[in-house]
Structure formats: structure tokens, C-alpha cells
Amino acid sequence: xxxxxxxxxxxxxxxxxxxxxxxxxxxxxxxxxxxxxxxxxxxxxxxxxxxxxxxxxxxxxxxxxxxxxxxxxxxxxxxxxxxxxxxxxxxxxxxxxxxxxxxxxxxxxxxxxxxxxx
Length: 118
Known about the structure:
By secondary structure, the chain is mainly β. The chain contains 1 helix and 8 strands, in the order ββαββββββ. It is extended, with a radius of gyration of 18 Å.
């Protein structure tokens, strides 16, 4: 995979995210991560996600919760790989992946919500 990139067109729903060689900590298990935070192996992850153009636009306004947004419902595909301790794990090719639901859009919350949600 190439360099880290993010391209988004919220109005159409099209988006693309590529992350290459992201350093991670492999803690093996959740209990180990919580109880032994210094017991890990270095790991590296790479992934790419592509959101397709959508045609259903959704407006969400919830001033009581301090949230609003404009979203386009669509689908997405993904592939990934992770390497740790000389082992590499990877998904099937992105062309074989599918989603039942995805969305791309703009969100406003907290201090970024016009009028503070009031």
C-alpha cells in the first residue's frame, strides 16, 4: 500500500482511506493489555477502505444531545494486513469484501454545534 491518505467527498458519499505501516502494540489478549501493559510485541498494520457513492441523504438533528449531521448512506470495501513477531495476517482481497451499511458525512457536536445545540 502507498502513503497514508484520506480523500472525502461528503456530498456524494465517496471516500478513501489508506494507512500504511501503522505502528501498534500487540498485547495478545485483552486481559494482558489491561493487566500487563508492558508485555507486548511491536506490530505494524496497513489497511485501505473505500466508500462508494451513495444516493440516500440523511439529516440528523438532536439538539438535546448536542449533535447534528448530514450523511450519505452507502457501502464500503476493505482490505488489511498486520505483522507481529515475524507472522503476517491479511484479509482476502478488497474486491471480495462487502458491507451491508456505511455512511459518510459531516457531523457537528459539542462546541462545534451552531448555537450550542439550543
